[in-house]
Amino acid sequence: MEVGPNVRELQSSATMAVSALAKALKAQGRDIIDLGAGEPDFRTPDFAAQAGIASIVQGFTHYTDPAGLPRLREAIAGQLATRSQRPVDAAGVVVSTGAKQALFNAMFTLFGPGDEVLVPGPFWTSYPEQVKLARATPVVVPTTLEDHFKVTPDHLQRATTERTRGLLLNSPSNPTGAVYEHAELEALLRWAAERGIWVISDEIYGRLVYDMDTAPSVLDFEDGLLERVVLVDGPSKAFAMTGWRVGFSYCAPALAATFSALQSHVTSGAAAASQYAALAAYSDEPRVAHALQAMVEVFRRRRDRVVEQFERLLPEAAFSKPAGAFYQFFRIASYFADGRTGSVSFCRWLLETSGLAVVPGEAFGMDDYARLSFAAADEDINEGIRRLAEAVSPGQTVRS
Questions:
Q1: Are the beta carbons of 371 and 48 closer than 8 angstroms?
Q2: Which residues, listed in sequence order, are joined to residue 93 by a DSSP beta bridge?
Q3: Assign residue 208 a region: left if phi > 0, alpha if psi is -120 to 50, beta otherwise?
Q4: Residue 373: which of 314, 330, 320 has the closest Cα?
Q5: What's the 3-state SS for 240-267?
Q6: Mean pLDDT confidence for 269-298
Q7: Residue 26: what pLDDT?
């Protein structure tokens, strides 16, 4: 079928594809363990869910302002101000249908034909595709395991041309769990500010960290470094609200107004019930912080268990210990054999022969890696790693 140039080179989400295949095999009666998911295996906090339900019962089911409920924008601004200890103008907040739409709003508004956008790799699978939807060119800036998968100003400078207009940052990172320290993030922001380059900072995993209280944010820095910065965040990961489809961006109010205008023609805004659920979460920090702390403690324990099991059972699967998010990104090149010459063929073989679903690193720009999610039940994680170890160690029985 002939399609237009806007989507001609668009690639579907590999993470969604792995999940779909795993579900199809489960439906056929196969014993499948799915460690490819990119969402917390926790319930939305009950008080937030009940607020969404109550909004429907009370008839709050009509259009909202395209930029979001004013009360929700104010609550988000208040929480950002509390966390960053700086004034935050609610006029700069635009609520969107998930953080993914907030990212798209920014890319489609700021970039266009002829522009280049720096995308540190490995990257979340949607970043380069959204850049291409904006008719711009993604320029992948590779990092290495030895760098702990973190980009530096020197990396960026080598990839910069006269057409460079943007930089995408993601900390904590999907897929690696890398977290930029304060000084590292400041150096990147200063480099971009000196060159007039837009920075889009995806901080959706910012409160899911294990070796510090919270990940450094772009809002931790002075105004002079933030004139060309867009912050993207939302309740999906930290508040286990992925299916509610709510996210937001924060930037200068004039730019936010453009995002709102764009959104008004694309989705009209996030669903009203979802916004009321998010409003409850952002308005009651003590209760949501309690739920978040409990979830982080579980993820920290799982992270430590996964690291221990990989070091013991999979010594050739090199990795950098994840400091945030809920992923283990590990090297699989030493396991390529019998026609398995890349991450896609390896992960398909693993799913079909061992019933374990992980995401091929090709989706994130590194074909000799794979991503395992520890946002799953403990028994599934343990059994999944056991199956992985047995699959790559033929003839050996492995105990987790």
A1: no
A2: 250
A3: beta
A4: 330
A5: CCHHHCCEEEECCHHHHHHHHHHHHHHC
A6: 95
A7: 84
pLDDT in tens, 104-120: 999 999 999 999 999 99
Tally of residues, the chain: 400
Dihedral of the alpha carbons of 336, 341, 342, 343, in degrees to the nearest 10:
-40
Could you tell me if 191 and 198 are in contact, meaning their C-beta atoms sit under 8 angstroms apart?
A: no
**Statement: residue 399 has pLDDT above 80:** no
Q: Please give the Cα distance from 9 to 14 (Å, whole number).
A: 15
Please state, rounded to an integer, the average pLDDT across all residues of the chain: 94
H or E element in which residue 188 lies: helix 182-194
Cis peptide before 122 (omega within 30 of 0): yes
Both tokens assigned to 24: 């199809």
Model pLDDT for residues 149-184, shown as the tens digit of each residue: 999 999 999 999 999 999 999 999 999 999 999 999
Domains with residue ranges and CATH for the chain: 14-43+288-392 (3.90.1150.10), 62-283 (3.40.640.10)
**CB-CB contact of 342 with 360 (8 Å):** yes
Q: Which run of H or of E encompasses 388?
A: helix 378-392
- Does position 302 have pLDDT exceeding 90, yes or no? yes
pLDDT band at 25 (very low <50, low <70, confident <90, very high): confident
Distance between CA atoms of 316 and 339, rounded to whole angstroms? 19
Within 13 A of 12's CA, how many CA atoms are on the CB side?
Answer: 7
CB 323 within 8 A of CB 180: no
The H or E element spanning position 303 is: helix 285-313
What angle do helix axes 272-283 and 46-57 make, rounded to 10 degrees?
A: 140
DSSP classification of residue 86: S
pLDDT at 127 over 90: yes
**Residue 15: its pLDDT value, please?**
62
Strand-strand pairing, 247-250 and 229-233: antiparallel
- The pair of three-digit structure tokens given for residue 302, joined into one six-digit string: 């799982």
Q: Is 233 left (phi over 0), alpha (psi -120 to 50) or beta?
A: beta
Q: Which of 191, 182, 206, 115 is nearest to 153 (CA)?
A: 191
In our burial notation (b when 16+ CB lie closer than 10 A, e otherwise), range 196-214 reads ebbbbbbbbbbbbbbeeee
Q: How far is residue 184 CA from its own chain's centroid?
A: 20
